[in-house]
Write a structure and sequence with these properties.
alpha/beta, Oxidized Rhodanese, domain 1, 4-stranded parallel sheet, 4 strands, about 25% helix
Length: about 150
């Protein structure tokens, strides 16, 4: 495996390595899991831009906003300028500065699940285990009975 920069695809200069993929080796969440996670006091981090989280813009989905109880943590805040993940200490510092508790279970979400996976990987690199909500906001809003939130909280 050759590491590539997220923004350009250029070779990162990192030494080539191997990657072993095991089915079901990474926990993933569905809607029911997320409802249980939130009800149990777990942290749900939304990886989208702050503007999308607050519901100010929504370029993809039919509704703007976020899952009630989620906290905004744009994935860009845990990335370096070169498109790689920030160091573990930087990631932990960002979480601390934003008041994100790490003493319980952590889940991630975004618009469709892709950026949630990226945020979960960044957290993993910082020693923080989390599980992405694969359907994320796109799946959440399919049910008109599910609550929606806008603004910072």
């Amino acid at each position: 495996v050759v590491a590539r920069r997220a923004d350009t695809g250029a070779d990162s200069g990192a030494e080539a390595g191997t990657l072993t993929v095991r089915p079901d080796s990474v926990p993933i969440l569905d809607v029911d899991d997320v409802l249980e996670h939130i009800a149990g006091g777990g942290v749900l981090l939304d990886a989208r831009t702050a503007e999308r989280f607050r519901g100010e813009v929504e370029p993809i989905d039919t509704e703007a906003g976020h899952i009630p109880g989620a906290m905004s943590l744009p994935v860009s805040e845990v990335m370096d300028a070169d498109g790689t993940f920030a160091d573990a200490a930087v990631i932990r510092s960002v979480l601390g500065q934003r008041g994100i508790p790490l003493d319980g279970p952590v889940a991630t979400s975004c618009g469709s699940g892709i950026t949630a996976c990226q945020l979960s990987l960044a957290l993993h690199e910082a020693g923080i285990e989390s599980a992405p909500f694969i359907g994320s906001w796109s799946e959440w809003i399919r049910d008109p009975g599910r609550p929606r939130a806008t603004g910072d909280a």
